[in-house]
């Protein structure tokens, strides 16, 4: 699609996008970073990547073992 548009049309689309983005509410990184950190720490107890999956609920655990003769 971008190949079919002239340079003027592409610039118009870019200006429209920038006008939309400037209306988005902004927050300082110092505040949002703390909020993200607090959220991650609060959810850490339920995170299977941090705690692991109980073996009885692990769908990827091999069902059988190797047999030696």
TrEMBL record:
Q: Which domain of life is it from?
A: Eukaryota
Q: Where is the composition biased (Basic and acidic residues)?
A: 53-69
Q: Where in the cell is it found?
A: Cell membrane
Report the InterPro entries cross-referenced here: G-protein_gamma (IPR001770), G-protein_gamma-like_dom (IPR015898), GGL_sf (IPR036284)
Every G protein gamma domain range: 1-69
Topology relative to the membrane: Lipid-anchor
Q: Extract the ranges annotated as region (Disordered).
A: 22-69
A single GO cellular-component term from the record reads:
heterotrimeric G-protein complex
Tagged with keyword Membrane: yes
What UniProt keywords are attached to this protein's entry? Cell membrane, Lipoprotein, Membrane, Methylation, Prenylation, Transducer
Q: Which GO terms describe its molecular function?
A: G-protein beta-subunit binding; GTPase activity
Q: Which GO terms describe its biological process?
A: G protein-coupled receptor signaling pathway
Q: Quote the function comment for this protein.
A: Guanine nucleotide-binding proteins (G proteins) are involved as a modulator or transducer in various transmembrane signaling systems. The beta and gamma chains are required for the GTPase activity, for replacement of GDP by GTP, and for G protein-effector interaction.
The family annotation for this protein states: Belongs to the G protein gamma family.
Q: This chain belongs to which protein, by name?
A: Guanine nucleotide-binding protein subunit gamma
């Amino acid at each position: 699609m971008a190949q079919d548009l002239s340079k003027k049309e592409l610039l118009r689309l870019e200006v429209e996008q920038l006008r939309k983005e400037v209306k988005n509410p902004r927050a300082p990184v110092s505040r949002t970073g703390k909020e993200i950190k607090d959220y991650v720490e609060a959810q850490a107890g339920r995170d299977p990547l941090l705690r692991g999956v109980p073996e009885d609920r692990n769908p990827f655990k091999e069902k059988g073992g190797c047999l030696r003769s």
